[in-house]
Amino acid sequence: MTPYRPPTEAPRFLHIDDDLLIVDKPSGLLSVPGRGPDKADCLVSRVQQTFPDALAVHRLDMSTSGLLVMARSETMHSLLSKLFRDRAVDKTYYALVDGLPEHDHGTIDLPLICDWPNRPRQKVDHEIGKPSLTRYRVLRRLPERHESLIELLPVTGRSHQLRVHLASLGHPILGDELYGAHTLSRSPRLMLHAAKIAFVHPSTGQALEFVSEPVFFRSENAQ
Length: 223
Known about the structure:
Blueprint: E1 12-16, E2 20-25, H1 43-48, E3 55-56, E4 65-71, H2 74-85, E5 90-98, E6 105-109, E7 112-114, E8 122-124, E9 133-142, E10 147-154, H3 161-168, E11 192-200, E12 207-211
């Protein structure tokens, strides 16, 4: 197993108020503490150095970068968690994938369950898997690199959902050591980024939307 070597940069805050925080997590940093003292360093622990009341509402895979919401009280944590359960939070991800998808857009509806003998891997299981739905759109095909930029809109939020769904199409995310190991030589990291998040602020009623553009989405990298 690869040793945990988290990046050193400090958390980047896109929004701070008395109720919640929006934080941009770098790839390679755990969202919450893992098992063992060697995995105590994580986004939550770093944020709590500045905001001791910060609580994780949801999480991203260690290798995934992008936007996370944190609550600043137990009450706000409950309210935000309900928004996620009720699918009242709009999330958009960008991924750089292997290959050139045939269709410009589509829906991936494949039930997922943990592959226990090989955990943390997940797998498609049509008998006992949990319903999992992802909508996607091809933003740009890069035939000279045999790669494509994909926009992903997860309707459900299963573990590794986007990674497994794209791999099931034959287009794994570059740098995915679990579902696209053959792409590791082409990418130093998992090319998956939580780029947009939008919801109504539980306290103020204000519609909030935040955007974080990944490096691999910039036009100069897609010429």
